[in-house]
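Q: How would the structure tokens look for this protein?
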Amino acid sequence: MRIFLGEYICGGGLIGHCVDSIPSSLLREGAAMLTALKEDLSAFADVLVPIDPRIAPVALDGMPQGDWKGRWIGKDRVSAFKVSASQPFLDQWIQQAKTCDAAIVIAPESDHTLHDTIEAFRSSAINIVAPNSEFTRIASDKWVTAQRLISAGVAHPATWSHAQVADLQGRDFRDGMDSLVLARDELSQSRRFILKPRDGCGSDGIVVCDHFHAAIQQMKENQILQPWLPGQSISVSVIANERGVELLPAVTQSIDPQTLQYFGGKGPLSEVYQARAHALVRKALTAMPKLGAGFVGFDLVLDDDEQGDRLIEINPRMTTSYVGLRKIVSGNLAKRIFNLESEPLNYRHSGQSVVWTPDGLVETAGQS
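A: Here is the predicted structure in token form.
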């Protein structure tokens, strides 16, 4: 079996951009996911990886300089090809993916990149393991996702579009939140606010404001406004294949409270919090179109009080939590994605936590 593995940042998606302009957080996390997934895939298949030659040393640790077309030495059944700036990266990806039996891509939701990449592969008759088109389209737009979840009764932060906020610009804010006659309780109680791109990826483009007036003054057309919610940031990943949808262990996320930058994770959670997180994700899945196949991440906030739990957003792609989950769960997660491993899901208990960084460094902690 031969699998094409394309990660957007390391694989030439930004080949026409200056390297220094690539957000370091996206580069680190992209390289971490690529390295982890290629290791798992190469345990049962040959793997073909596109590489931006300018950042290859970061993307593929251990590859000899200049040996772009040669096979790696050792147990890894991985080969790479250099993406050129002379033609669109996606054309090059598709050309090479046609030589493979299946494909997995990791790409950002911004500017429809993820959705369009998946659809381009499908229209080229490539067997890409990814969510269905409608699921990806909705999950890639945080405003559309919010409307979908809220209308289905899934606990989600109060969310405003730029058009809705524009209607409030002429109001008198001297009385604070009382002037927001259409605000939900959680917004009226909030003292911090978050601006994020509708199609954002990670913490890129997110702004945290301490005052509502400052937030609406800064808000741009492609952003949404949400209240800052207290609680613990949680990630739940799911794998979908022909057998159905399988929920992986819930884990915590280390998030900077000022920038929302991701600093890694730890897991799994206790059984009580696992149950709460999984229940919320199941509700979200019923509100969304059929998932289809692949790996999808759900971001949540769990409060001290279960009534404060919220589903924040859905990432219709591989997330950095994969680097930790593959050490928490027994077996090979990539095999589960391809429905080649059907044994019951076994994983560490919370007393044996796995901790990881956005760079993919993983260690096992003691009693939590």
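The first helix runs from residue 24 to 41.

Residues 33 and 322 are 7 Å apart (CA to CA).

Upvote if useful.
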